[in-house]
Every structure is written in C-alpha cells, then in structure tokens.
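Problem 12. The chain below contains 300 residues. Write out its predicted structure in token notation.
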Amino acid sequence: MARIKDYAGVARAPFLLLPPTLIASGAASAAWNGHFSWLHTIVALVGLVALHMAVNILNEWSDMRTGIDLETERTPFSGGSGTLPGGGMSSRTALIFGMACAAVGLGIGIWFIPRIGAALVPIIIVGGISVLAYTDLLARMGIGELAAGFGLGAGPVVGTALVQDGSWSRAAVAASVPAFFMTFNLLFLNEFPDENADRRGGRRNLVILLGRKPAALVYAAAAIATPISIIVSVIVGWLPALALIGALPSLLLVKPLQWAFGDTDLPVPIPAMGANVAWNLATNSLIAVGLVAAVMMLPS
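Solution.
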C-alpha cells in the first residue's frame, strides 16, 4: 500500500515550489495595476499546484509504462523519483492520483469562468493540453520544452493576473516572458542526463533533435535572454524600476553557462542543475518582490 512519501515522490514534491513563485509574480503584476484578490490568488495557487502535481505524476506513470524510468540514471533533478520502479506505488494508483489532481485543476478553472469571463478559456484549454498530453504527445513532437515554458511559466503568470479582475496588463505580459524562458530551461537542462533513456523510449526533445552542443547553446541563449527581458521591460515602462532586482539571480548561472559553453559531452554537473532551479525560483520571487515594493511606494 502506497505511503504518504510515495505520493509525495510521484508528485515530485520538492519541485512544487515553482507554482507559488509564478502565482506571486502574476498577482503582484496585477496589484501594480490596481487589482488584487486574496481569494482568487489562493484559489489559483491551489489549482496550479494540482496541475503541476498532475503533470509530474502522469510523467512518472508514462515513463514506467514505456520503460524509460527503468533506464535513467537518477540525479536529484532528473530521472524521475524512482517510486514506481521501486514498488512504492502501483502504476494504476499513480494514474488515478494524477487524473484526480488534473480534475482538481480543471474544476478550479471552471470555477473561475463565470467570475472572470471567456478570456480565461484559452488558457484553461492550452493548460489542460499541456498537462494531459505533455509526456505521451508533446514530448514526442519536439515541443515539450515550449509546452512547459507556457504551461508552467508564462501561462500561469498571465492567468493569475487575469483572474484578479478579468483583464491583464503589460506588466503581467512582461513578467511572463522571463517565466517562460526559465521554465523552458528548467526542463531543458534536466533532459541532458536522460538523453539515452529518452531516445530509447521514443521521445523527441531538443537535446535529441539538435544534439548536445547546439542544444546547450539554445539553453544558454534562453538563460541570457531572461535578465535581458527584465531590463528591457523596465526600460520601456512595462515594469517598475524596482523589478530590476529580478535580474540579480542570473548571477547563479555561472556554473550552468560554463558547462553550456564548454565540453557538453561531459555530464551536466549537479551544482549546475541545482543553480538552474535556484535561479528560476529566485527570479520569479524577486520580480514579485520588486512589484510589491513598487505598489507600496505609490502615493495613497
């Protein structure tokens, strides 16, 4: 019988820190434009965490079914949790758990529609496709990284701003751009250690399609574009100047970029993968902090 730690394992609990940072960034961008609801923000957070859990669980279920999970060399950041291969939970239980989490996320999206309007429907549809079709379809079409960048990056930031009052602003769009690049890279870098297992399992991600060195350079380009997008958004007035603190965590990219510009036939260093995660969480969080600080400095 599965235990709590097994449910947390297939849900990849340590990675569930990402949704709060995305919700914070989206809600803060809406607050900067004068719209904020605690209730809607908390409900959106519950929905996004449920959807993130769903995509993680369904990914583990699929990787066990296709045999990928039996061949990966696990790291703290890639290769799956090992829960299903280790017998901690049956594949059937994982599938039911994943679909239940997806149903919670969908239910919350439906709850928002009469309160916000039809503008939310496209985000719900694209988000649902990203969750349910990611592993067995999108990751086999060469667009898995793009789907992740939207589904757990740009989409939640804009969507959170939208559920505050039914509209979004230039600030929300601006905050969604670095979120897209970072979640794209969060998945992307973690695909390098799984290259051989993914290839045998029929995946067609960018590491396999481009080759390691070109793929590493794409990673580097997205990494460098992240702080640039923040700076440009401040220059053109889409974000307040205090949001520039969101560019500071890009200093954490030294190790990942050293690897990307070096010998990419070598394994990605574990510290580089850890820095990639920390960069992602810190950047979204500091953009939110900068926006909140800017709101607090507005004249009453």
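Discussion. The chain has one domain: 4-296. Students who got a different answer should revisit the alignment rule from Section 12.3.
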